[in-house]
Amino acid sequence: MQINTPMVSAPTGTRIRAYFAGKLLADSSKALLVRESPFKMNYAFPEEDVQMSFLTKLDKEPESPSKGRILSYHIDDGSGSRAEKSAYAYPDLKEGRPDLRGYILLNWRAMDSWYEEEEEMLGHPRDPFTRIDVRESAKHVVIKFNDTVIADTTNPRILLETGLPIRYYIPESDINWDYLVPIEKTTVCPYKGKSKYWSIQVDGKKAPETAWAYPEPLQDADRVKGTVCFYQEKLSVYVDERPEEEPPSYFTK
Q1: Which of 88, 96, 194, 247 has fewest C-beta within 10 Å?
Q2: Which CATH superfamily is domain 132-251 in?
Q3: pTM for the full predicted model
């Protein structure tokens, strides 16, 4: 499923820094937060606030129907650290798109670290139109794998995140831990923090990467500490004895 939304940008109002191979690559109080698609946020830095000596422009200039020409750059710090096609720019003014002439955008994952003021950012830029709300609830939530009850609670935490499905976080005391198998997978969310994962295994049958938790959640999600969440997409979730609607598969990450 493809969701089309216009590219938009706005001043951050804060100092944004990006480090590459331990070196300060970009540092600006005039950066723009750019929403390139519903699931892609990025920062655009004025060229004068980027170490342009680290950037080598590619000769090829592909063109997007919606974004115009795209200039791509390799990043090389001169001491052996290199990231291919990890910076880019939109050099043309195009109707219906923010004016990003004179700005450089950096591949988030190619950087060592990102900072907003003096706080390190995790996962990806925070969207000012996205928020986390956690609510205590008395709903009766039951999690099943096939016919086996994995968790059963009347004290869930309901996590509401802008644009994403409702998630039910179950207190650790209401989970049958015999069926949870810890795995090495971790993820990072800029709103919730660093997660850890489990698979579910019952009588030799396995549902991989099915449950997760935030042992040390960030402030917005602090109330899910000590709880575990389960994918409605992979298990059967009943709320007040009714099956919970399964979210679209593209939300399963």
Answers
A1: 96
A2: Domain of unknown function (DUF427) (2.170.150.40)
A3: 0.78
Separation CA 168–CA 175 (nearest Å) = 13
Are the CB atoms for 90 and 97 separated by under 8 Å? yes
Q: At residue 232, what are phi and psi to the nearest 5 degrees?
A: -65, -25
Whole-number Cα distances in Å, 101 to 50, 60, 63, 91: 14, 18, 15, 5
**pLDDT score of 3:** 47
Q: Is the dihedral of CA 155, 156, 160, 166 positive or negative?
A: negative
Strand arrangement of the beta sheet that strand 119-121 belongs to: 23-28, 16-20, 113-116, 119-121
List the domain boundaries for the chain: 8-121, 132-251
Long-range contacts of 138-141 (CB under 8 A, 24+ apart): 139/168, 139/239, 139/240, 140/238, 140/239, 140/240, 140/241, 141/168, 141/170, 141/237, 141/238, 141/239
Fold classified for 8-121? 2.170.150
d(CA 62, CA 42): 20
Six token digits for residue 252 = 């399963």
Q: How far apart are CA 203 and CA 201, in angstroms?
A: 7
One-letter amino acid of 220: D
CA 204-206-212 angle, to 5 degrees, is: 140
Cα torsion at 45, 49, 53, 59 (round to 10°)?
30
For the segment 81-124, what is each residue's pLDDT rounded down to a tens digit? 999 999 999 998 888 889 999 999 999 999 999 999 999 999 89
Sign of CA dihedral 97, 103, 108, 114: negative
132-251 has the same fold as 8-121:
yes
